[in-house]
Specification:
This protein is of the alpha/beta class. It is built from 5 helices and 5 strands, in the order E-H-E-H-E-H-E-H-E-H.
Length: 173
């Protein structure tokens, strides 16, 4: 059975930055990468079910009518709160990072020479978090099924004793 590749959206109005990040991630991970120059374009394509979105903070340098990154982050989280969003910005101001995190960003990365490596580490962390969450759900489901099975066995035994089909004598070794 073929393994489904993860879908990642890159949203940045700087085509050179977008292409460099696309090439870097394509080299490091097996992903389906979709690039958008505005957040509005990405919002229109949420039906593609991205697991991660890397979103530029300032999206109005080319299209002046485009929404900024925080407005797109809010819209994304409103429509699909489960999608992880990493904000990417040239702004090295703590109040901007705090604002992004307050609106649901998973992390905030300042554009620098180490930004791509930071994004790679964040993606690995998100992947590990998703695997752990999936395992936890599987364990909970298994525990629930086991408890239901035990309950059914106990109820069946009680009914069998009440109906005289079985006795309540237990052998202890």
């Amino acid at each position: 059975m073929a393994k489904m590749q993860k879908i990642v959206f890159l949203i940045d109005d700087d085509p050179m930055q977008t292409q460099m990040l696309h090439d870097y991630l394509d080299d490091k991970f097996e992903l389906v990468l979709h690039t958008y120059s505005t957040g509005e374009e990405a919002l229109e394509n949420l039906h593609l079910n991205p697991e991660l979105i890397i979103l530029d903070y300032h999206l109005m340098s080319v299209n002046k009518s485009a929404e900024d990154g925080v407005a797109i982050l809010k819209a994304l989280k409103e429509k699909r709160p489960e999608i992880q969003v990493v904000m990417l910005s040239g702004q090295d101001k703590i109040q901007i990072a705090v604002e992004c995190m307050k609106h649901g960003a998973y992390d905030y990365v300042v554009k620098s020479e180490s930004a791509f490596m930071r994004i790679e580490n964040i993606m690995n962390n998100i992947g590990e978090h998703m695997r752990t969450t999936h395992l936890l759900k599987m364990y909970k489901r298994g525990l629930t099924i086991a408890l239901i099975a035990i309950g059914v066995i106990i109820i069946g035994a009680v009914i069998a004793v009440k109906m005289g089909i079985a006795t309540a004598n237990f052998v202890v070794f």
